Amino acid sequence: MSTEQGTRSDRIDERQMRFQALLTAHRGIVLKVAYTYCRREADRDDLVQEICTELWRSFGRYDASRPFSTWMYRVALNVAISQVRRAASRRLPLASLDGEEATRVPAPSALEPDERLADLDRVIARLDPLDRALALLYLEERSYREIADILGVTQTNVATKISRLKQRIRNDLAAPRPPEGDDPWSSTTSRPPGNRWTDASRIKTR
User: Is 184 helix (H, G, I), strand (E, B) or coil?
Assistant: First the structure.
């Protein structure tokens, strides 16, 4: 192997190690996006896999001067929303999106059952893909500036959309609960890992 080839190989190895370290540090983002867009474990696994593949494919364009988490959210949400839209265009349920890494994460089933959280899950599952992304980022306590950067809209647009979204969620939470069999986000589905997601009090019901 020539010196030039060896140097190129070293650079690739270094980039792979850097990517792996960042992915490991922020892997919760990928899992939360997968849980937000997929009901079934197999679907979440596939989505995790596809997001990680796209993150690596796009890593060369990542600007290290900006927060990695913001860039990661943007890529992950773009992949998830594209998946949902493709499935909808084929009139197929979004099934199979998961990954080995996701199966190693302790399921957040240790959380005490809470009807309010179950209702919030149900409402979010019925949102369109973009509003679901907005709800996820809001519940994760991302700033309006960061949400705007992730979604590619203005901060004013984010503020307006969040205000409307909260009102819609309030109205939906006040509506009668559907029969268990009709719930698009069943009680057997694990919620995304992380305490911020489970803070339903961020969306006041009054």
Answer: coil
Q: Over 90: is that where the pLDDT of 177 sits?
A: no
pLDDT higher than threshold 80 for residue 203: no
Contacts of 103 (CB under 8 A, 6+ apart): 41, 45
- What's the pTM value of the predicted model, to 2 decimals? 0.72
Q: What are the extents of the domains in the chain?
A: 1-105, 110-206
Helix segments in the chain, DSSP class H: 3-25, 27-37, 41-58, 68-89, 100-103, 115-125, 129-139, 144-151, 155-174
DSSP tag of 40: S
CA distance linking residue 94 with residue 39, whole number of Å: 8
Rg of the chain over all Cα atoms, to the nearest angstrom: 19
- Taking each helix axis as running N to C, give the angle between helix 3-25 and helix 41-58, from 0 to 180 degrees, rounded to the nearest 10: 140
> Is 1-105 assigned to CATH 3.30.70.2330?
no
